[in-house]
Amino acid sequence: MPAGRRLLVLDGEPGGWLPPGWEVLPQCGGGLDRRLADAFAHAARLAPHSPALLVGMDTPQLDAAALAEPLSAARRHGTDAWYGPAADGGFWALGLARPTPGLAARLLHGVPMSTPGTGPALLRRLAQAGLTVRHLPPLTDVDTVEDARQVAVEAPHSRFADRLRAVDAAPEVAS
Question: What's this model's pTM, rounded to 2 decimal places?
Answer without folding.
Answer: 0.89
